[in-house]
Amino acid sequence: MIDYHLHLWSHAGKDSPVAIEQLGAYCDRAGSQGVSEIAVTEHFYRFEQAQSILAGYFRRYPESPMRDLMEHYWERNGTADLDQYVTVAQQAKAAGLPIKIGLEVDYYPEAMTTVQSLLDGYPFDVLLGSVHWIDVWPFDHVDDPFVMAEWERVGVEPAWAAYTRALEELAATRTVDVLAHPDLIKVAGHRPAVPEEYFDRMAEAAAGAGIAAEVSSAGLRKPVEEIYPAPALLERLLALGVPLTTASDAHGLGDVADRAPAIKELLSARGVRTLRGFDRRVGSAIAI
Fold first, then answer.
1. Are the C-beta atoms of 204 and 275 separated by less than 8 Å?
2. With contact defined as beta carbons under 8 Å apart, do 44 and 103 qualify?
3. Mean pLDDT within 95-116
4. Which EC class, in a word (predicted)?
5. 148 C-beta neighbours (distance < 10 Å), count
6. Do residues 54 and 110 make contact, with C-beta atoms less than 8 angstroms apart?
């Protein structure tokens, strides 16, 4: 098993310099849960380098309290040094830790070429692609009543449609290697009348771009209380031959490799025998 989605800082916590000792603790914790390889995949926006190329990005949208919230959140969290992060992860690999160097990269419409140009200068093993916001609405901030109230204004069907369109566009850029938590839009528990229509498009987006999709336990820790992807979406991904990674999306040591044995059992029952590993962004099969 692998855990290819791990963060070093909590959502609310400030970043701190990455240390080999922290990465070693993550590896130890993962190993205790039957996970043989991990990938550190901190959010791209948490680094000063992202701020340098995307400063003022959200000002392309109309001024609003939601835009103010998003800009403040994004700027407050963008203080880490990407070079230091990568250097320490390289040192951990050189020391023999079973670790891959990665990032979680959000979708920035009209700016992905700029993002890719920066990322190409680093020795990443794997890049996860995510959609965490629709325009300036960070729909997965489930603990913020102001953000959650937006569901009533936007509507479930339009939200799912916009999310799915953004996921399709992200996959088509081929900037990333894996679609993380592909049906994240369900995080608050809101589902459309016929989600299968969106699941078809999500699976086809991954298959068409030739990228992997993530099976993550993180949804079990959210209001939706369901693994990403939903069973119906997982069936579609498997039917189209989309390779899979597995993940916890931990933001701290306690959730590293969360429910890894259960995910292994889930996939084994569906005939999955290998996962997609990555090294310098080249995929290979890893026994489940």
1. no
2. yes
3. 97
4. hydrolase
5. 16
6. no
Cβ-based neighbour number of residue 261 at 10 Å: 12
d(CA 53, CA 67): 19
Peptide bond into 231 cis (omega under 30): no
Nearest to 171 by CA among 215, 132, 124, 211: 211
pTM value is 0.96
Helix (H, G, I), strand (E, B) or coil at 24: helix
Cα 121 vs. chain centroid, distance in angstroms?
21
215 token code pair: 């099976």
What one-character-per-residue DSSP string does 133-178 give? Answer: -BTTB-TT-TT-HHHHHHHHHH-HHHHHHHHHHHHHHHHHHT--SE
- What are the pLDDT digits (tens) for 134-156? 999 999 999 999 999 999 999 99
Q: What is the pLDDT of residue 13?
A: 67
Number of alpha helices (DSSP H) and beta strands (DSSP E) in the chain? 10, 9
How long, in residues, is the chain?
288
- The token duo for 21 is 């000792």
The rounded distance, in Å, linking the Cα atoms of 119 and 106 is 13
Map out the domains of the chain with their CATH numbers: 2-287 (3.20.20.140)
